[in-house]
Every structure is written in structure tokens, then in C-alpha cells.
Write a structure and sequence with these properties.
The chain is an all-beta fold and about 230 residues long. The protein contains no helices and 29 strands. Helix content is about 0%, strand content about 40%. A 10-stranded parallel beta sheet has the order 1-4-7-10-13-16-19-22-25-28, with no helix packed on it. A 10-stranded parallel beta sheet has the order 2-5-8-11-14-17-20-23-26-29, with no helix packed on it. The protein has a 9-stranded parallel beta sheet with strand order 3-6-9-12-15-18-21-24-27, with no helix packed on it.
Length: about 230
């Protein structure tokens, strides 16, 4: 607890094999790799940490990793805020994820986290990125004011997104494309530039019971072979 771990040549904190440490109220910053990297079948509890200004992701997870990530601030990283790959899962709740250079929260390759109660804002790229068979459940998050699309789902993603608030993106609210077939329900999609929701390129989401209002472009756009 209460450590400052900074300016490492690789990851500031590397966790691997079956390790399950507890990190509470630490500052993890300015690494030349990622802030936290979890590999193998590792996990742990990560609460109240400040994870910032790392060259790669704030938190990177690969393999069959898991963990509880709660109440962390993940800011100003030059890569992703959070990046899950492979069969990673874990629970992310009540984190502040902001001002990262790549996607605030990225999920790929059948990773399947539970993500709720987070704020993902002010990124220079996408807010949420689900790609390449990404899965998981995402609810009660606020996704706002990201430079690209607030929420982008591509490459056969199958997540369940419900009860989120998605607002004020410069690049559009939600974009489904490239064979995505997820469930998108009871979300508030408000005041985004371009389209609030766009469905392109054979995407086939289930979109129901959402509030879609006050966009500066179209409310809902469906093109190509989408359904």
C-alpha cells in the first residue's frame, strides 16, 4: 500500500503465473511499458491506485488472467487505458478512465470482462473498443467526450451492453460494424456528433429499449448489408 512505482524500463508492475497480489492506493506511473501487466493465470485485487503516463497501456491483461479492479484512476497513458486480450476476464467497477491516447477500454480475442460503474471520458481515440470476438458485460458506465466514436464494436464482437450513458463524442456515439452481433439495450445515447448510432458492414446487433436523442447528425443509421 501507498507505494510509488515509476519510470521503469518495462512494465512498472508485472504479475504472472498464478500470482494474486493485492495493490491498494499506489501510484504507478511513467513506465516505458505498461503500468500493470498481468500474464498467465494471474489475478489479484487492485483498488484506489493512480495509474498514469505510462508509454503503453495503463493496465494490460493477456492469457487467462482475472482480477478485481475498483476505484482506480487510469489517466494520460500513451496507449490504451485498459487492454484485455486472449481469455482474460475480471471485474472493473467504479474506475475513472480518462485522457488516454488510444482507446480508454479495449477488449479483444474472446476476452470477457464485467465492466460497470466506470467513467470513460476525454480520450484522444475511442472510449470503448470491442474487437476480434470480444465478449463481456458492460453496464451503468458513462462514456463521454472521446475524440473518436464513444463505443466501437467490430470483428464479430458479442458483448452485452446495457444501461450505459453515451454522450458528447466528436466522432459519433456507437458504431457497430464487421459482423458484430451484440445486445445493446436500455442505453442513453445522447448529444453525439455525427450519428448517435450507426450499423454498418454486415453488423447484426440487437438494439432495444434505448433512448437516442439530441445528436448533431442522424439518430440511427443502417447501411450496407447490416440488419
Amino acid at each position: 500500500m501507498h507505494n510509488t512505482i515509476a519510470a521503469s524500463k518495462l512494465a512498472c508492475v508485472g504479475i504472472r503465473d498464478n500470482a494474486e497480489p493485492i495493490f491498494i492506493n499506489n501510484t504507478v506511473s511513467d513506465g516505458e511499458g505498461s503500468g500493470f501487466v498481468l500474464l498467465g493465470s494471474s489475478g489479484g485485487i487492485f483498488e484506489g491506485n493512480h495509474i498514469l503516463r505510462n508509454t503503453c497501456a495503463g493496465i494490460g491483461m493477456k492469457g487467462k488472467t482475472t482480477g478485481l479492479f475498483e476505484g482506480n484512476s487510469i489517466n494520460f497513458n500513451r496507449g490504451y487505458g485498459v487492454w484485455l486480450q486472449d481469455e482474460s476476464c475480471g471485474t472493473f467497477q467504479n474506475n475513472e478512465i480518462s485522457s488516454n491516447c488510444n482507446a480508454g477500454f479495449a477488449v479483444s480475442h474472446v476476452a470477457s470482462p464485467k465492466v460497470h460503474g466506470n467513467t470513460i471520458r476525454d480520450g484522444r481515440h475511442v472510449g470503448f473498443l470491442l474487437q476480434n470476438n470480444a465478449q463481456g458485460e458492460y453496464w451503468n458506465n458513462i462514456v463521454s467526450n472521446n475524440k473518436a466514436t464513444n463505443v466501437l464494436l467490430v470483428g464479430n464482437s458479442k458483448g452485452d451492453l446495457h444501461d450505459n450513458t453515451i454522450t458528447d463524442s466528436i466522432g459519433g456515439g456507437v458504431l457497430f460494424r464487421a459482423d458484430t452481433c451484440c445486445t445493446f439495450r436500455r442505453n442513453r445515447v445522447l448529444s453525439n456528433h455525427r450519428a448517435n448510432i450507426a450499423v454498418l458492414d454486415r453488423a447484426n446487433p440487437c438494439v432495444e429499449e434505448n433512448i437516442i436523442q439530441h445528436g448533431s447528425g442522424r439518430g440511427l443509421v443502417i447501411t450496407g448489408n447490416s440488419t
